[in-house]
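[step 3/7] inverse_fold.run input=structure_tokens len=811
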């Protein structure tokens, strides 16, 4: 790489010895031996980070072998150099077209060998030149060049000359303004520029001294017509002036601000000294006395008391305007504001608590029963510690809202902490005070907001915790949610222990699979299943409709939504485990009813079953989706997801011309793939019972597909479903479309238990299924199903695949 040394582009702007004679030598035109190379072959020197202009002296350090050979050739043959700038995307080694075609003719005036094999060359540039052709690239570049003389635009006359002179003066004055703004030493350059009459030469000198980009400088060099050169230069010059003015304004504002801050500091110090002399610095003393008084009233443990007294003493001795003073004040204020001794008394009236829970929520029997148990035990044992409960269920079933009702029933203060997306451990434990902007963790903040040390804290979306390089918040919660450890919970900001043993923590989650095992082990899990149709109807009629009517300025007399209409909404417009979408649809009806009342000037609106489509449009879902006919190789399975139960239509095709391969599609996981292989192995063991030729297993391929391939699926509970579909496909016996099943299959045909029976049963009911086959070991789960769900369909417990096939295959 060639380095440009001692050029006028770096440091202060100065003239060179050659510039002082520019009027006599260059201004008079091209002289010397240039007439001999008007069109001749010379060596080419390439520049990477500079553009040379005529009428200047430059010093360059050359390190590349190519350019060293070019200099040697020029010295040996006493010929000038053609100096050109490399293009931005130039390759290495250089190709003939990697340099700009217009450069300058330069004569070597001095040459010195320096360390490392480099050469330092001083050159004097004399005129623009254009490369006509590349003669040779062996070792270095030889090019045919032609010297270019400055030209003027067509029709050049005295008026144009006067205009050029005026532009030249504008450029000189602008350059003077620029160097003044940049606080650079002008030396005698600007004075000599004013004396020069050659506008083209002035443009070259100014462009060479401006810190503009290489492309901009090359544009000035390329301009052979003097008028165009001045226009290009003035545009670049005005841009640099604007940048320099902006920079100067910023520096001036910053300087004023710093001066103002210094002035304010000295004034504050003087005021402080004066107030001290007059005995008038009572504000700080009063604040310190209040802190000490409040500390004494808290009656904290001795170690904590000593630590706080030390911090208060430090604060009293500090300058009030210092940053550390504000940090200590915030720290002490937080500790003094924490409810170290303040508690609320639990409601001991179980009947009252039960009426509160029943009045706020329909269903959720397990949760209500657990809270009533806590109250009963609390009456018998006053020293009982706070409970840690995790409510798990699909969205919209009321996990978050039940937390507020529990706090109301217990008579405790309530605060909520959302954990969704939290990935920083400091969110739980707080920041250490050594960091700028340190704050306490959200646990301590919740305690402070609640105002008591025994509130109910709802940890919402605990399954959405994340972790990264900043720490693992789930790990930080291990101490918080351990009743044996949280009595001495230490926040990094506080640096003193705080007792959390009386706090009731209720966490909510959609699934347990993403909660770390150690954290899950510290919580009592209560599963909340989805709602049946009757439960949704009761929730809507008793809670959602009155709530939405009030929100939209309506009442029971101005807007009536019948039970049949609510059922129509449940069946045709929502398909969910919770009631969140149902609430939205009721809100849609309320808004449209409000529009009718205002626009049509009517007193009331009645929404019946037949008019629901008028408000909500066409139905989105069919309640009965098993319409059609029984098919071979198509079986309805039941699956559990974090948002409720779903039905899966598993399809199997037997393909001719195969080799016994098993193919499964539908974005299934490894567990489901293994279930499919186990199902196929089992089917082969019972081939004789269904008159299946054993040769089919080696001459045909089996393709299992689970529709909705964009949705990932996994789990073992589709084993009996796939086995039934494979038997049907090989035997040609149809499967009843009104039968749905769930269960894991073994190689011996045993049906193993599954989870989420209620969610799967609800999905089957929505699909219009009449018979549900489930593992016999899930009999206890079946007995916990709502009565209306058990009577709506036939539930058949199965022990092995023989029973499954007998019930599912059409005789």
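[step 3/7] decode complete -> sequence:
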């Amino acid at each position: 790489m060639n380095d440009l040394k001692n050029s006028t582009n770096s440091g202060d702007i100065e003239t060179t010895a050659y510039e002082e004679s520019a009027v006599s030598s260059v201004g008079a035109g091209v002289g010397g031996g240039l007439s001999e190379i008007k069109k001749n072959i010379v060596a080419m020197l390439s520049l990477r980070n500079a553009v040379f202009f005529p009428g200047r002296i430059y010093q360059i350090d050359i390190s590349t072998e190519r350019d060293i050979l070019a200099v040697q050739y020029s010295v040996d043959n006493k010929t000038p150099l053609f100096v050109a700038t490399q293009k931005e995307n130039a390759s290495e080694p250089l190709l003939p077209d990697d340099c700009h075609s217009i450069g300058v003719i330069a004569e070597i005036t001095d040459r010195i060998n320096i360390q490392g094999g480099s050469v330092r060359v001083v050159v004097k540039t004399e005129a623009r030149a254009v490369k006509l052709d590349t003669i040779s690239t062996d070792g270095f570049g030889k090019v045919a060049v032609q010297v270019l003389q400055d030209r003027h635009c067509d029709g050049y006359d005295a008026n144009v000359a006067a205009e050029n002179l005026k532009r030249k003066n504008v450029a000189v004055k602008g350059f003077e303004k620029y160097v003044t703004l940049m606080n650079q030493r002008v030396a005698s350059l600007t004075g000599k520029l004013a004396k020069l009459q050659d506008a083209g030469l002035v443009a070259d000198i100014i462009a060479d001294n401006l810190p503009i980009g290489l492309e901009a400088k090359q544009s000035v060099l390329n301009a052979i017509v003097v008028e165009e050169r001045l226009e290009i230069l003035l545009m670049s010059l005005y841009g640099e002036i604007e940048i320099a003015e902006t920079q100067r304004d910023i520096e001036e504002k910053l300087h004023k601000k710093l001066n103002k801050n210094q002035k304010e500091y000295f004034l504050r110090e003087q005021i402080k000294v004066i107030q001290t002399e007059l005995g008038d610095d009572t504000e700080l003393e009063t604040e310190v006395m209040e802190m000490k008084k409040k500390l004494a009233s808290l009656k904290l443990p001795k170690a904590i008391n000593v630590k706080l007294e030390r911090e208060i003493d430090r604060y009293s001795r500090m300058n009030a305007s210092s940053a550390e003073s504000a940090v200590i004040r915030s720290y002490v204020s937080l500790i003094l504001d924490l409810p170290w001794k303040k508690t609320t008394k639990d409601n001991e009236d179980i009947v009252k608590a039960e009426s509160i829970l029943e009045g706020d929520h329909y269903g959720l029997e397990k949760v209500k029963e657990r809270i009533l148990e806590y109250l009963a035990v609390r009456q018998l044992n006053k020293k009982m510690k706070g409970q840690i409960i995790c409510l798990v269920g699909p969205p919209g079933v009321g996990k978050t809202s039940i937390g507020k009702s529990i706090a109301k029933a217990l008579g405790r203060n309530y605060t909520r902490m959302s954990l969704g997306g939290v990935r920083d451990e400091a969110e739980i434990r707080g920041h250490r005070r050594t960091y700028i902007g340190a704050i306490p963790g959200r646990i301590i903040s919740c305690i402070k907001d609640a105002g008591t040390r025994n509130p109910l804290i709802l940890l919402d979306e605990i399954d959405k915790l994340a972790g990264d390089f900043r720490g693992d918040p789930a790990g930080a919660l291990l101490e918080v949610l351990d009743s044996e450890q949280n009595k001495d919970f230490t926040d990094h900001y506080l640096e003193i222990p705080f007792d959390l043993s009386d706090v009731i923590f209720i966490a909510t989650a959609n699934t347990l699979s993403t909660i770390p095992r150690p954290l899950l082990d510290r919580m009592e899990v209560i599963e909340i299943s989805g709602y049946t149709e009757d439960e949704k109807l009761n929730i809507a009629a008793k809670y959602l409709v009155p709530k939405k009517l009030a929100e939209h300025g309506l009442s029971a007399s101005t807007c009536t939504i019948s039970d049949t209409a609510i059922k129509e909404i449940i069946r045709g417009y929502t398909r969910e485990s919770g009631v969140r979408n149902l609430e939205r649809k009721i809100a849609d009806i309320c808004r449209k009813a409000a529009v009718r009342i205002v626009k049509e000037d009517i007193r009331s609106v009645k929404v019946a079953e037949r008019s629901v489509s008028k408000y909500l449009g066409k139905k989105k879902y069919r309640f009965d989706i098993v319409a059609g006919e029984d098919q071979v190789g198509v079986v309805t399975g039941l699956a559990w997801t974090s948002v409720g139960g779903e039905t899966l239509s598993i399809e199997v095709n037997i393909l001719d011309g195969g080799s016994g391969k098993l193919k499964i599609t539908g974005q299934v996981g490894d567990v489901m793939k293994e279930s499919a292989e186990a199902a196929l192995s089992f089917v082969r063991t019972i081939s004789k019972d269904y008159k299946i030729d054993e040769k089919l297993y080696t001459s045909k391929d089996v393709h299992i597909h689970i529709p909705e391939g964009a949705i990932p699926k996994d789990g073992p509970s589709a084993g009996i479903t796939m086995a039934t579909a494979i038997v049907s496909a090989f035997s040609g016996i149809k499967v009843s479309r009104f039968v749905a099943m769930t269960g894991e299959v073994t190689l011996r045909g045993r049906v193993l238990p599954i989870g989420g029976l209620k969610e799967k049963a609800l999905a089957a009911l929505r699909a219009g299924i009449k018979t549900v086959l489930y593992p016999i070991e899930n009999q206890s789960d079946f007995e916990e199903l709502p009565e209306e769900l058990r009577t709506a369909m036939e539930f058949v417990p199965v022990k092995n695949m023989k029973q499954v096939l007998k019930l599912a295959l059409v005789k």
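[step 4/7] annotate
The two ends are 89 Å apart (CA to CA).
The CA atoms of residues 193 and 202 lie 6 Å apart.
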